[in-house]
Amino acid sequence: MKPIKVAMIGVGNCASSLVQGVAYYRQNNSSQGLIHDKIGGYGAGDVDFVLGIDVDARKVGKDIAEAIFAAPNNTKVFMPNVPATGAKVIMGMVSDGVAPHMTTVGEKGFIVADEPEADKARIVEAIKASGAEVLINFLPVGSQKATEFYMECALEAGVAVVNCMPVFIASQPEWEARFREKNIPIVGDDIKAQVGATIVHRVLSSLFAARGVTVERTYQLNTGGNTDFMNMLDRQRLGSKKESKTEAVQAMLAQRLEDENIHVGPSDYVPWQKDNKLCFLRLEGLQWGNVPMELELRLSVEDSPNSAACVMDAIRCAKVALDRGEGGALIGPSAYFCKHPPQQFNDDLAAQMVDDYVADAPLAAE
User: Do 155 and 184 form a contact (C-beta atoms < 8 A)?
Assistant: First the structure.
């Protein structure tokens, strides 16, 4: 098999879990933990990481396989001996990709490399030189300008995009049109977890609707100790994240809730949790005869590995689109793998759309 060549913007915890996972599935010929074993003939081990882009001094200049274990990354290490990739992490553009408070917390935050920031020409050239086919956006929440900068680079370099964070690109008509006009596929926006807070909240909301229970109020509170939660202590960076998560839940309710009756979003940063995320869900509803009922749930997951299976499927769907010569937002994969897709569908229908897409996929080139 010719592996899919992937570049990553941001070599943090999510990148670490993804790179470790590819090494794991190469070594262990298993489908355990995967949503789809094969997509277009590509397995979870059929990925080569050919370029990393970051701004942290502890990562820039290192092989990706080494950089993923550098501070401030603190996700679970389940594949400690990742073979060297031969691809190094290059200096990116800081812009709004680093919140000011994240540079004052030492080992737990960012230490910006003392190197010239990359301009668009340098990034585009690096992407082209690497041979990357798919570019993954792992930037922190709130990186609006930085994301738009890298999307311009992707369009110029002609690489497919998986937008894992909540700056709206695939779901923003003007941006999506630009990818479609250039015949470049994109999956987005804001990647879901395999079994995480948003997907569980959506499923429960759908269950209430299907069983005739009217949801009156609901909340989702999350705590964690990784750089994502530390970054989100700056509430000004949270606008698109809260919109993305809230709309993902609202779309599954039988009746849209007023703003004061729904709260979905990060709650607080708890350093000792590291990459473990705790989610607390509550739904209050009315059953037969307007008799009230309440449901509460506690979910504990390792945050970054929890998104990796969705990212892996999104990468392979993007590659299938490239093989077919298709461009623009991939509607089914975006709806199933992302919180804020161009079009929302219930998860059963979105899953079927992906399965139909996968079933029609050509086999990968030998």
Answer: yes
Q: What secondary structure does DSSP assign to 80-116, as a single string?
A: --PPP-S-BEEE---TTSS-GGGGSSGGGS--B-SSP
Element (H, E) at 302: strand 292-302
pLDDT for the residue numbered 359? 85
Q: How far is CA 192 from CA 89, 200, 344, in A?
A: 26, 10, 13
pLDDT one-digit tens code per residue, 67-125? 999 999 999 999 999 999 999 999 999 999 999 999 999 889 999 999 999 999 999 99
Name the token pair of 172: 């923003």
With left for phi above 0 and alpha for psi between -120 and 50, is residue 219 left, alpha or beta?
A: beta
CA distance 70 to 60: 10
Sign of CA dihedral 297, 301, 307, 308: negative
Q: Which distant-in-sequence residues (6+ apart) come within 8 Å of 92 by Cβ?
A: 9, 53, 54, 55, 117, 118, 123, 146, 150
User: For the CA atoms of the chain, what is the radius of gyration?
Assistant: 20
Percent composition of the chain: helix, strand, coil (DSSP 3-state, to 5): 40, 20, 40
DSSP state of 268: E
Residue-level length of the chain: 366
Token couple for 104 = 């004052």
Question: Residue 363's pLDDT is what?
Answer: 57
Helix (H/G/I), strand (E/B), else coil: 345: coil
Of 307, 221, 304, 302, nearest to 269 by C-alpha is: 221
Q: Is the overall model pTM greater than 0.85, yes or no? A: yes
- Which tens digit of pLDDT belongs to each residue from 195-240? 999 999 999 999 999 999 999 999 999 999 999 999 999 988 988 9
User: Taking Cα atoms as reference points, which of 74, 14, 100, 102 lies closest to residue 226?
Assistant: 74
* 293-306 confidence digits (pLDDT tens): 999 999 999 999 99
At what angle are helices 197-210 and 347-359 packed, to 10 degrees? 110
The residue among 142, 296, 276, 165 whose CA lies nearest residue 222 is 276
Residue 276 contacts by C-beta under 8 Å, 6 or more apart in sequence? 224, 225, 300, 301, 302, 303
